[in-house]
Design a protein that fits this description.
single chain
């Protein structure tokens, strides 16, 4: 089955259709149609989808950096027990 590369990228990085949809403004159904269609795609949807992928990448990069910072700060105490509701990393 022929699919667009964007579908493979989305699956590889665990990006859901609803997540992509929220950012680009296209419905999840429309995104699926685009992924499975071999027809030429208009510039508008291309631009919206590309922007959404970049936005998700930037968000995840920020989260990954925050995780690395937290790991660095708490590496020596990562397995200590704390009260979940009263402790903030």
């Amino acid at each position: 089955m022929q699919v667009r590369k964007m579908r493979l990228l989305r699956h590889k990085y665990g990006i859901s259709n609803p997540d992509l949809s929220r950012i680009c403004g296209l419905s999840p159904q429309r995104i699926s149609e685009i992924e499975l269609s071999g027809e030429e795609l208009a510039p508008g949807p291309k631009r919206k989808l590309l922007h959404a992928f970049h936005t998700i990448a930037e968000q995840r990069q920020a989260s990954a950096m925050a995780l690395c910072d937290d790991l660095s700060r708490h590496e020596n105490s990562l397995f200590d027990t704390v009260e979940e509701s009263d402790y903030e990393l």
